[in-house]
Write a structure and sequence with these properties.
It is built from nine helices and 18 strands. The chain is α/β, with parallel strands linked by helices. Helix 5 packs parallel to helix 6 and helix 7 crosses helix 8.
């Protein structure tokens, strides 16, 4: 979907080539909107449009609007599938590169208004937005800057006006939008006015986060495979300033982004989806999983079933924090909170060490050995990503053994041991931090044998 064009775009923030405009908040901590977005963790991507009916990934803008005719379209089915599987947001392709618009835009006749679907009176975006808002799922919009149909695309200034007019329609008429997704594919010599797009977005929906291309607040992870690097740092420098810049991993549940009639055999297994989860959310990034509606306008039954199986697997693996109820001690008094709350009370409480102790630790003990095979650690990122090195030790009843060493933690870090181990104690050692470190959660878990 992005290919080389977006790779070049996404290298810019890392190379600090130019400064973002002042409207883009600087600092080494997340904005409230970024913090809330990172807690979402799992999103569904729905690629849908004329491509769905022509078996192509990148339409050239010549497909007839009449070819778009999803006879059983049901946005609530999409949203119900996402919610039942534990996904917290959904992004729909309002316009892909072919330029066909899934809402009755007033700026082009290349839209659902010109199709046979619902006699030209349908509005995919309206129904998806309403379904999301009703179900409590966050709603997001993908609006491709590249437009292979619109004649004014060749004129930078004219197209910028056109694009922002469509932004106005989408961001003014469909309720709260959590994420505005800009693909970086294509271009064909066009120069996008990213600063103007960002300012326009914030004028219309100040709390909406721009993702991927341009003046983004959520960055592309660098691949379309669903995996983030380890270590995964959230702060980058650009124009001499630091910016909080969390990553999103976009990936596909099947081989393609759009539905194709003969690719059901490429549906990813539960085991592979778990691998993606641990390599994205488990590395501190978000996972945006594409599940493409078919030519009926429904998510395929096989895909929905696979999402449910994925949800069941996660629930089985992470149903019980084995540290809950253990006896917790710490290396030093806390500025705020209690380390006991970090293992018992969930994400509403944090523990922050008094000072930057190079060997600060949190220790949990049981009266009898407990068996586990993984750890989940969450840093108190409202303070920033301060932890630079950490280790995990286990106590066998006589001595401590080091079983894992790592660098970044960030929003969430999942560390899986090669095999289960039984111990009477677990200790998280913060070996290096830029400032007094804070923790939001720490847990030990045991996956059922079928998911190891």
């Amino acid at each position: 979907m992005h290919r080389i064009a977006i790779i070049a775009l996404m290298l810019l923030p890392l190379l600090a080539v130019y400064a973002w405009p002042p409207e883009r908040p600087a600092g080494d901590t997340p904005t409230p909107e970024q913090f809330a977005w990172q807690d979402l963790e799992l999103g569904i991507f729905c690629h849908f449009g004329t491509n769905t009916f022509h078996g192509v990934e990148w339409g050239d803008g010549t497909a007839s609007p009449d070819s778009f005719n999803p006879s059983e379209f049901d946005a609530r089915q999409w949203v119900a599938a996402a919610k039942d599987a534990g996904f917290k947001y959904l992004i729909v392709t309002a316009k892909h590169h072919d330029g066909f618009c899934l809402w009755p835009t007033g700026r082009s006749d290349y839209s659902v208004r010109s199709s046979k679907w619902r006699d030209g009176k349908g509005d995919v975006i309206r129904e998806v937005a309403d379904a999301c808002h009703e179900a409590g799922i966050k709603f997001g919009i993908y609006l491709s800057p590249w437009d292979r149909h619109e004649p004014c695309y060749a004129d930078n200034k004219a197209y910028d006006e056109y694009y922002m007019a469509q932004m106005t329609e989408l961001l003014s008429n469909y309720g709260e939008v959590t994420e505005f997704w800009c693909d970086g594919a294509g271009g064909k010599g066009h120069v996008y006015n990213w600063d103007a797009y960002y300012r326009h977005l914030k004028k219309l929906q100040p709390k909406c986060l721009q993702a991927i291309a341009g003046v983004a607040e959520i960055r592309w992870v660098g691949n379309e495979d669903g995996f983030a690097p380890d270590p995964m740092w959230n702060v980058v420098e650009r124009g001499g300033k630091k910016y909080w810049f969390p990553a999103e991993c976009d990936a596909r549940i099947r081989r393609n982004w759009f539905w194709h009639p003969n690719d059901a055999n490429t549906l990813k297994s539960v085991e592979y989806l778990l691998k993606m989860y641990h390599g994205s959310v488990g590395h501190g990034a978000g996972l945006l999983l594409n599940v493409a509606p078919d030519d009926r306008g429904l998510l395929p039954e096989q895909d929905v079933a696979r999402l449910k199986e994925f949800r069941a697997a996660l629930a089985a693996i992470y149903k019980e924090n084995l540290l809950a109820g253990s006896t917790v001690t710490v290396s030093s008094e806390a500025v705020v909170g209690s380390a006991q709350h970090v293992v018992d009370a969930g994400l509403s409480d944090v523990w922050q060490a008094v000072e930057n102790n190079p060997e600060a630790w949190v220790e949990a003990m049981w009266p009898e050995p407990v068996t586990f095979d993984r750890f989940v650690t969450q840093e108190a990122i409202h303070l920033g990503q301060r932890i630079r090195e950490y280790a995990i030790d286990v106590y066998d009843g006589a001595i401590w053994h080091r079983v894992h060493e790592g660098t970044s933690i960030g929003h969430k870090k999942i560390d899986i041991l090669p095999e289960p181990i039984a111990a009477r104690g677990v200790r998280l050692v913060i070996k290096n931090a830029t400032e007094a470190p804070g923790l939001r959660a720490f847990g030990a878990y045991l996956a059922p044998e079928e998911y190891r």
